[in-house]
Give the backbone structure.
Amino acid sequence: MSKFESSVKQIAYPQQNVYNMLSDLTNIERVKDKVPEDKLNDLTFDKDTISVSVPPVGQITMRIIEREEPKMIKFASENSPLSFNFWIQVLPTDEANSKMRLTIDADIPFFAKAMVSGPLQEGIEKIADALAMIPYQE
């Protein structure tokens, strides 16, 4: 397995607000207009799963397999060219602010590692940036 981590992102909202929003994927409806259409196609979701078409990879589906309130949400791939787990970790910095780190643990075949490592690292950083900009008001 190959591990990719985003840098730590500061969020100007309390840990519980961030967890509440991200642990229920139906909340994506509130922010999906902020996702560039050319980056994500055919976005569908319910409380526990999210599915999206990512050019040139294809359709990817992830399901929440573990929630550890208020600090961690863990996803597993269900329909993906690569098998992977994905974590969102949220920790408080004080009562009104928190910080976040994303981690992907992917089963990448040796021959493909050099080709996908750069895009995966770049992708997780962009996702972390986007999640850090969401308004997490209750």
User: Anything to note?
Assistant: The longest strand covers residues 58-68.
